[in-house]
Specification:
With about 140 residues, the protein is α/β, with parallel strands linked by helices. It has one domain: Rhodanese-like domain (Oxidized Rhodanese, domain 1). The chain is built from 6 helices and 6 strands; from the N terminus they run αββαβαβαβαβα. The chain has a 6-stranded mixed sheet with strand order 1-2-6-5-3-4. Helix 3 links the parallel strand 3 and strand 4. The radius of gyration is 17 Å and the shape is globular.
């Protein structure tokens, strides 16, 4: 009994450095919830897919360069997500973080390996003075 308690304490102590990340039971999906600065740094360092989950009207106000637009409010998002490479890191953002949080869970449930979520969304990205592209 003591051994099980000690093992449990050690196990959870080892997990504590991974706050902000989530894995499914099979250990195949990692979700990282990051701020705008970290999101930008990760995008610059790593190869992945950048997804803007906002509506066309929201995208008209600007977007992060290199984004693929998938409107998460439109049912076609499921079909669009099925076309993505689940083994690549997928960077996602919406306006304020709500839709991207839902999308991260959807992606986890559908076998994506790594999802990086901009927690406060495009609005915070813009507020932090990060580069914004406009439609031409």
């Amino acid at each position: 009994m003591k051994t099980k308690i000690i093992f449990s304490i050690v196990f959870f102590a080892l997990l504590s450095p991974f706050q902000g990340k989530a894995q499914n039971a099979a250990g195949t999906t990692v979700i990282e919830n990051v701020d705008a600065k970290t999101f930008k740094e990760d995008l610059a360092k790593k190869d992945g897919i950048l997804i803007d989950l906002r509506t066309p009207a929201e995208i008209d106000k600007g977007f992060i360069k290199g984004s693929k637009m998938i409107d998460f409010t439109d049912k076609s998002y499921e079909q669009e997500f099925s076309k993505l490479d689940k083994n690549k890191t997928t960077y996602i953002y919406c306006a304020g973080g709500g839709r991207s949080g839902e999308a991260a869970q959807y992606m986890k449930d559908h076998g994506f390996k790594k999802v990086v979520n901009l927690t406060k969304g495009f609005n915070d990205w813009k507020k932090q003075g990060m580069d914004v592209e406009m439609k031409k």
